Amino acid sequence: MHTVSRAPRAILIDVIPPSMDRDDAAWRITELESLTRTFGGIVIVKLIQKRSLPDYRTYVGSGKLEEIIGIAKEERADLLIVNNLLKPKQLFALEEALRPHHMAAWDRVDLILKIFQKHATTAEAKLQIKLAAIKHMGPRIFGMGMELSQQAGGIGTRGIGETNTELMRRHLADQERQVKKELEKAARSRGVHRARRERLGLPTASIVGYTNAGKSSLLNALTKKGAFVANALFATLDTRVSKLWLKGETPESEGSIVLLSDTIGFIQDLPPDLISAFRSTLDETIEADLLLHVIDAGDAHLHEKIAEVEDILQQLGTTGTPRIYVFNKMDTAPDLDRAALTEHYADMTPTFVSCLDGRGLDDVKRAIADRLRAA
Ligand SMILES: Nc1nc2c(ncn2[C@@H]2O[C@H](COP(=O)(O)OP(=O)(O)O)[C@@H](O)[C@H]2O)c(=O)[nH]1
Ligand SMILES: [Mg+2]
User: How far apart are the first and last CA of the chain?
Assistant: First the structure.
């Protein structure tokens, strides 16, 4: 695979059963697009393919693969991302077919792992992700070894590939043991990171919610990123932390600063092997004084998603952290029953905004100030 220094240009494909309804299909590809952007990729084409059974060899099938290669040539694509879980052999076959066109192939787990890798800040998070990657990549490497052994050795002979596979298997097992040992050590020094943040003496708020709910948009809308000039105090913070200036009550009063941080966000159907790695990326969420839970107001499954986010937050031990529910994308949900939601989530200071047209953003700032003052 060639190294890419600019933002990779990605072709996305989702293979779905023919019976899936249109909204669900649209939602899935939108989520994938959002994930790709979170990774830092540029989406050039989105493909949805209906198939009752994925192709056993290439998952997408040879016809689709031809089409993808055609698009890749025209659009200078670097990457094919398949929104499904592929077998090691299928990914290997895709890689083989795409390599001559200077393209790599990832499945959904690859993409998620890359996002985690990019966002991990603590030693513990990095190790958790490394562990998940070893578990995920392991079978793929064995799969490749199998291919090689079939090519190199005939029946009854011990192929080169087989020997390599054995070596690789041992190497990975060693690595896994090593990472687990380091993880134990990292867990013991967990407090270090937190201490650094606290030294700044500023309140912190963390933005949580599902992918595509508008977390990054909210951060940008609230802080008008770009207008913010870094100074020495904030230079030590990672790039996803922004300074939010809350105006004072009166024109004379000084107002206050809150450190606002974006998170990766919850991912639909997160593979179980990735849950520990995902949680470890939420370290800063655990430490936050306040949580902004962003919800897509137009989402048909809004209550379920809220419950799922709450469930993880509880498992992270943030039950006591005050929350503000930010119902975003109000421009897409004119019929939303605000009164019912306000009553139902009364403890969560529900606010209704649109990052697109800017409505409600002042309410969010006011709510942040109020909740921090009360805390
Ligand atoms: N219509 C509408 N779209 C929005 C709004 N806020 C965000 N979006 C869009 O929703 C998508 C996901 O936003 P993003 O901030 O990346 O979501 P994140 O994954 O939660 O960080 C983007 O295409 C945004 O342009 C909004 O208030 N209204
Ligand atoms: Mg985001």
Answer: 51
